[in-house]
Amino acid sequence: QVQLVESGGGLVQPGGSLRLSCAASGSIFGDYAMGWYRQAPGKQRELVATITTGGNTNYLASVKGRFTISRDNAKNTAYLQMKSLKPEDTAVYYCNSPPSYPLLGPWGQGTQVTVSS
Description:
Layout: E1 4-7, E2 10-12, E3 18-24, E4 34-39, E5 46-51, E6 57-59, E7 67-72, E8 77-82, E9 91-96, E10 111-115
Parallel strand pairs: 2-10
Antiparallel strand pairs: 1-3, 3-8, 4-5, 4-9, 5-6, 7-8, 9-10
């Protein structure tokens, strides 16, 4: 069973940057499209960005131009580079397959991103 471990979150001031990582165990990572999700307190989990096996990307409108999703199949790792962070980006961030695909694995613990002055 694939395990997903998110890391890289933290407390950052508005306008700051963070790079999140999603490490997947096993050897099937490269066969799956990947997505980054986030869940803010009291809100439903939302899809933030996706990347196909071929490297095509898509973004939530509110993060387009600020966030960049990427992947390194040799390292079984997906990344989310976030810049120009806003308080409304505060959430727990998770990675997994996009909604139209079977889940790559169980949901991980996520990584907390807090944007505050």
